[in-house]
Design a protein that fits this description.
The protein has 286 residues and is α/β, with parallel strands linked by helices. It is 32% helix and 25% strand. The radius of gyration is 19 Å and the shape is globular.
Length: 286
């Protein structure tokens, strides 16, 4: 019985906090994925709207995503759609009783971004800590770890490793592998077709991968077609990666559809992959 109770407590959940892109889709917040285990949350990427999406997940019963519990975040790269929510993720939980520094793990440049955000809000922080609010000064710290490929984070709940991926010239962008007590999860970040992600997954429980519609891309101007082909992964190519990776579940996020229906994206995935997959929506839980 004790074993069963421990297994239930260790059950890992993947929560999609944002499945969008730079496109201002009101139904999809900016890219963000949470791994929740043993009452702790680990958030990958911080797109616009991240704290309110996390709060909505908490109201649905995932208390690890309540603002006071948003303590650890990972950045795959520093594109604005993946980091515009960083000030929100840093400041609002500090106001809402996060009595701990923010742990922020990301590529080279993360420390500079964090320090500039702190400088931009210096007067706000001073007011909240030293005047009537009497806020917790520790909650306004950001402890930054800039990473290279390999082991990037470890605690009692997760061991996180990273590989470098190619994305629009970012030096570098990362994909992450999370090992928890009961699951293995891979989050691709933004990347072109990369078989190293399949190797990283290698039968993992959940592969969270970005995607664009091949048909949808034909509707874009030539310069944008060239950009996306060299920055992101098409539906058929995501299917090829999943066919090699053999995840128990492929979850699609950072959706770039450009007006084509989700059924078209499903056809593109199924043209190269016959396994289980889900087209993610904000607040989906796996």
């Amino acid at each position: 019985m004790l074993h069963l109770l421990l297994l239930t407590w260790a059950q890992t959940q993947v929560v999609l906090l944002g499945t969008g892109s730079p496109n201002a889709d009101p139904l999809r917040s900016g890219p963000s994925t949470a791994i929740v285990v043993n009452g702790s949350s680990y958030v990958v990427d911080l797109g616009p709207g991240v704290v309110r999406r996390a709060s909505a997940a908490a109201e649905k019963g995932i208390k690890a995503l309540a603002p006071a519990n948003l303590k650890t975040a990972f950045l795959t790269h520093l594109h604005s759609d993946h980091t515009a929510g960083l000030p929100d993720f840093y400041l609002m939980p500090a106001v809402l009783d996060r009595h701990a520094p923010l742990k922020l793990i990301g590529p080279k440049g993360t420390k500079s971004m964090a320090r500039h955000i702190q400088a931009a809000y210096k007067e706000d922080i001073d007011n909240r800590v030293n005047k009537l609010e009497k806020g917790d000064a520790a909650s306004y710290r950001i402890d930054v770890t800039e990473i290279k490929p390999g082991l990037v984070y470890k605690d009692a709940n997760v061991t996180v490793t990273a590989i470098a991926v190619e994305h629009a010239g970012w030096p570098p962008s990362f994909a992450f592998h999370f090992q928890t007590p009961d699951k293995r999860i891979v989050v691709s970040g933004d990347t072109v077709y990369n078989e190293a992600i399949a190797k990283l997954c290698n039968g993992c429980d959940i592969l969270v991968h970005e995607v664009y519609s091949e048909l949808g891309l034909t509707r874009r101007p030539p310069q944008w077609q060239a950009y996306h082909r060299n920055a992101h992964t098409s539906g058929p190519d995501v299917g090829k990666i999943a066919a090699l990776a053999k995840p128990k579940l492929l979850v699609l996020t950072h959706l770039l559809l450009w007006g084509v229906p989700e059924s078209q994206l499903s056809k593109e995935i199924q043209s190269t992959y016959t396994g289980p997959f889900a087209i993610g929506k904000d607040l989906d839980v796996y």
